[in-house]
Each structure stands twice: as structure tokens, then as C-alpha cells.
Structures
1.
Amino acid sequence: SLYWISAVSMTLKSIAEGCARVVCKQFDPAAMCRLIEKYKITSVFLGPYLAYDVLDARQKNIDTSSLKYISIGGAPVTKKLMDELREAFPSATVLQGYAQTEASGMISIFNVNDPKEVELQTIKPLCSGKVVAEYNWKIVDPVTEKVLGPNERGEFRYKIDYQMNGYYKMDSSSAYDSEGFIKSGDIAYYDEENCLFIVDRIKEVFLYKGWRIFPAVLEGILLTHPAVEEAVVIGIPHELNGYHPMGIVALNKGYEDVTPEDIELYVRQRVSDDQRLRAGVKIVGEITKTVTGKVRRYDMKQMVLNGDI
């Protein structure tokens, strides 16, 4: 789908390099393996959730030895997935990359033509490679704006000649810092070898199976429930699907008998399947906010992950 920049960049890359590109009407993991055998496909790009589907559907009697490269991206990747892909497709080099539509393509990946970098991906399976040479980039403390050094976690920011001009019909000034770098919304760090590691997302929008989840939309639905006084939606990391939406709500007085399941069902009946609160609903006494009344979304998420909610 051209909804994602990966489809555009791969089409242009295929044209520029004189490659044939095999495009299916609908993704079918078993059919993909048969197509690799039939057309001797050498390279595939998969999201982690699709990669798991391929591993489950793969038949051992199908010849996939033509496959040279498997690129993984679009959502968090686990070491387990990387190891299983290497075992299932021993002829292929498995690489993890990092990209954003705002950047018009790939931001970081290891160079498949450099044996040392390919080895680094094996040694550092959770690494997203090295930032492409055309980028200016930095890791910044999002609170103090201090530029950070190796192994210090902060927001990844970047600048490149062909980055986006802004979001369509929206005020995009907040998407850039004072030096014109795009704020990725991703917490990251780099090590002494300039290998980039994406740790977490700090901006509100997150991905479920590649689809954008807009917390404000789900929060608006939650707030239409008569029992809900305040609501915040966060993304809970999931090994297969990227993130699962979770609702955290504070109830109005007199609705103490309302359960998390009641609220989850209420939302489920009003949204498409990909927008469901798959991580459930938590009921709290109050939603944590700043002194100016803004929801401390990141703090709420950490409280859930730490078991404090």
C-alpha cells in the first residue's frame, strides 16, 4: 500500500536498479514462500508481525534458497524473531532497519555489502543499523534540549535535504526543533560504534500492525461513556504486533460498579478491529497531569509497565 513510504521507496529503488518487483493483491504468508521459489526472489521486506506469520506458514519442502536479504522494520523487533528468521532462511542476511515517512525513506540500516556491518547485526540483533550518510542527526534530551553522547537515551532527531516540508494542511512547526531537525518522537541511543538503537516512542501516535493508532480518537470515544470522567490511551509493547492500545480511565462518582470489561466492550462496539483496546482498560483514581493540566502520558505508561497501576 502507498499508505507507507516503504512502498514508494521500494518501487523507486526497483526502477533505479533494474529489478523486478513482485506485488500481491493481498498478503498471504504461505503464498509468499511459494512466490520466492517460483520467481527466485532475492530480497523481501517484512514487518515483524508479518515475519512471524511467514515463519508459521512456511513449508520445509519449498525452496527459498534464492533469498539473499530479509529486511525487517516498521515496529519493534525481538532477538527471538531475528534468530528464527536466520534459522528458517539460512541463505539470507537478515537486517533490521529504521525509517519514517517524514524522512522519505530509510534512516538507518547496516550496509549489506560490508561484511563487518553484517556481522554487527548478528552481534547486536536489536540494533537498527547505522544512520545513512546523507543524514545530519543527534540524540537530544527532549526536556533540556541538551545534545547527548554515546549510550545516553534521548529523542532521535534528523535533517536531510529531501525530508518532508510539513504535514498536509496542518501547522507543522512543532515537528521541528530550532535548528530545523525533525523530532522523530522516538527514544534512542547510539553506541561507540555509531550503531543506532530505537528504544521506545515518546510521541502519542503509535503503530499496531503498521496501522497508526491515534490516542485522541480513542480517548474521545472513551469520554462518551457516561461513567468515564477522564481518559488516556497508551501503547503497550507487543512482541508480534508493535503496540496494543490500552485505555486508562478515571470514573465519575456513582459509577463504581462499572468494570474495565464494560468499558472495553463499549469502545470495541464503536471502532474498527485494528483500533480495539487490545491491552484492555485500567481504572485509576486520577489521571496524572502536569501543573498546566497536560496528561503525563509517558509517566502513565511507565506506571503500567512497572506494575504500579
2.
Amino acid sequence: MLFNVGYLEVMKMYNWECFLFHDVDVLPEEHRNLHTCPTENPRHMAVAMNKYNYTLLYEKMFGTSSALTVQQFKETNGFSNRYWGWGGEDDDMYTR
């Protein structure tokens, strides 16, 4: 829910083109990771993390850190508001 609120509030201030949604409990390890939004598909930016032995936890994981254009965010209707606390919202976003 806070991702959606953040999106709505910052769009009132400036016409942003790219949004990076990031969990607060994980820090980027690789400074060469491009923090940009590809136009064709949203980008999952945390495919290799030391807490998962640098492997993807499961095949369709989309959480921890992801990049979406404004158009992609609108097309998916943002993140679901059905999830509270830890888990589920990023997997839900993957299916959208």
C-alpha cells in the first residue's frame, strides 16, 4: 500500500518517468546495477543476493527491488492493497 501512496504523492510534485520500489531491509551490493526503467518490461533488480547465496529464491520472484515506468505502473494498477506486513505483494505484482 505504501508503494502506491508514494507513487501518487511524488507524481503531484514532478512528472517522473521511472520508479524504483525497494524493500527497506535490503541494501544494494553491486554499484554497477543500472537503476533505470526499461521500456519493454519492468525490471527485477535483486536477482542475486547474499542472503540467498546469490541465487534467485524461486523462479518468478519479483520482490526486493524492482523498476517500472509510469506507464507500466498504470497498466498494472499499482501494487495490490490486499497485503499487509511481509510477503505476497511482489508476487502479486509479477502476475500483473
3.
Amino acid sequence: MTPAHALDAARRAAGFLTPDEVAALAPDVLVLDPASVLVGRSVVIEPGVVVYPGAVLESRGTGTVVVRAGARLGPGPVTVLAKGSRVEIGRAELGPGPVTVVAVGAASSGSGSADVEIGADARLSGGCFVEGPATIGAGAQVIGTVSIRDVVLGAGADRHDPDPDRRGAVVKGTGRIHGVRLGAGDVVVGRATVSGVERQRAHHPDAPRFTGT
């Protein structure tokens, strides 16, 4: 068996596409380095997705991973794992920097769904770790070496909107942030002591304000 055939056999045994099969996703899916990307056989990637080197998309057991059209995975290593639960990534940006998304099936204690949903125009970057259950609404952001679980980040406009009151919710900083429920324009900052819920406007006091929205 040649080294290439051995690599193909190893990937198949682990439930992944071979490098040639990953390359064959083009031109619909833009995989920039098929040899360094691992894609599970049951993973669904819609046309128009961009996948940077080092990405790992894996589903185990009854887990499912769906990446919607227009999503960008990278630059920087992006790891998505679903085991017994579902991860759905909308037209979002995961990267730059390491990003890890994990949805592991509900514990035997009956804690409920561990699904992760990431909406359109959301942004995850800078070393963040997302563990289900988690709903990251359209336009929401998770920035920095922060670990989140059991969160709902409300949808809003994307980060380019000039009015911070209209933007999707933001979690940023460092450390663990669990159990928060944020609306549009809200932010929580993780540090030595996690901040309470603040308004993004407090960090952008000179930003314009639009009424009636």
C-alpha cells in the first residue's frame, strides 16, 4: 500500500473524506488546502463556503454539522464537532485565530439539547470556545480567548452598523461565561471578574444614535 493509499484508508476509517474527495468539493466549496482539511462524511457544506487550511468538521454518531452558503471558516484553525447534537453555521465568519465549536449530546442527567446555532453575519474569532447549548444570533460576536456555554446572544445588525444599540450581542475577553442571555446592543466582557451585562454604547459613547429602530 502506498503512503497516499494508507492516508486515504486512515481517513475513511475515521469517518472523513479523502484529500481527493475534499478537493472534489470545488468549485462549489472553496477549500484552500484540501490536504490539511478534515471533513466528516455526513457533514453538509453548501456552495459558496470558504474553508481555510487546518479546518476540522466532524460529526459522530447521530451528530450533524451543516455549514450554510457564504460562511467563511478561517483563517486560523477552526474545529467543529457534533456528537449526538447539531451544529448549524449560517453565513458567518469563524476566524481569524483559533475557533472551536463543540456540541455533545445531552448528558444522562437529562439536561436537554446541546445544539449550537450560529446566525448570518455572526463573527467568532481570537481563540474562542463555544460549547452547546448555544444560540449565537445574526450579527452577534464572540471575540477573544473566552469560553461560552448555555448562552443566547440576541440577533441584530452586524458589527459594521454605526449604531451599537442595533448590533447583535457581544461576548468578548477571557475566561468562562456561562448561562447569559443577551439582547441586541448588549455586551459581556470576560476578565478576572466577568462584567455584568453592559450596553455596547458604553464602549462607544460617541457613536451615532438612530431613533425609531
